[in-house]
Design brief:
The structure is a single chain. The protein has helices at 5-19, 26-30, 34-46, 48-52, 62-67, 73-84, 105-118, 160-171, and strands spanning 69-70, 92-100, 124-129, 132-137, 149-153, 184-192, 195-203. The radius of gyration is 20 Å and the shape is globular. A four-stranded mixed β-sheet has the order 2-7-6-5, covered by helices on one side. Strands 1-4-3 form a three-stranded antiparallel β-sheet. Helix content is 40%, strand content 22%. β3 and β4 (132-137) form a beta hairpin. By secondary structure, the protein is α+β, with helices and mostly antiparallel strands. α1 (5-19) packs antiparallel against α6 (73-84). The chain has a domain at 84-206: Chloramphenicol Acetyltransferase.
Length: 207
């Protein structure tokens, strides 16, 4: 069953996104049929008590979000799966963009900092207090709010296989979700003086 959890969780995330109802992954194992899942969705959509217990993050003040607020059901589910498989990269999401021509690293860093100021998800990290994991948001002017850009360089004459190997390595690097900052990885890989690849990876918990 353990090996099936990532796939089952992805199914339930898709269901939640499509129907807007909170249904835990365990439900899929409890009622592993379309009929059973449909019944669970119907119950979730008509359960006023459950809906009343869901508090959107936007309802908290910026000071409260900075200090830490309860995680969403989706985030709690991700945290449980992470506790069970802390070295798993099953929920890593990654993208790589080729940047050709002369590159101003300072401008790139400034653009990423601007994006982080506008989007709280890029400043969200997870802290543990009194045995409970909370989601917290770095204020826009916090030193750790802007994504840190790591730098790597390929050896001169390295081919595309070497670049692919580096990207695969970064994509499979597991995130430690609690107490280690935003689960976001930004790496600028220098292929040549006028050829770079920008790798951006994050854990699905930020989505």
């Amino acid at each position: 069953m353990l090996c099936m959890l990532p796939q089952a969780s992805k199914v339930m995330i898709a269901v939640r996104r499509e129907f807007g109802c909170e249904v835990i992954t365990a439900q899929l194992f409890k009622t592993p049929t379309i009929t059973g899942l449909a019944a669970a969705l119907l119950h979730a959509s008509t359960d006023g008590e459950q809906e009343a217990n869901i508090v959107p993050r936007a309802m908290f003040s910026s000071q409260e979000r900075a200090a830490g607020v309860p995680c969403s059901a989706n985030q709690e589910q991700m945290l449980v799966l992470h506790q069970m498989q802390p070295d798993s990269s099953a929920y890593n999401m990654a993208d790589a963009t080729r940047l050709r021509g002369m590159l101003s690293v300072a401008t790139l860093e400034g653009a990423l900092a601007f994006l982080a100021r506008r989007h709280e998800s890029l400043r969200t990290h997870f802290v543990e207090r009194d045995g409970q994991v909370l989601q917290a948001v770095y204020p826009a002017d916090h030193p750790r709010a802007a994504p840190a850009v790591q730098r790597r360089s390929l050896a001169p004459g390295s081919g595309e296989e070497a670049l692919t190997a580096v990207l695969d390595e970064l994509s499979e690097q597991p995130f430690q979700l609690v107490g280690t900052g935003v689960p976001l990885l930004v790496v600028l890989i220098a292929v040549a003086q006028d050829d770079h690849v920008l790798f951006v990876g994050n854990h699905h918990i930020l989505r």
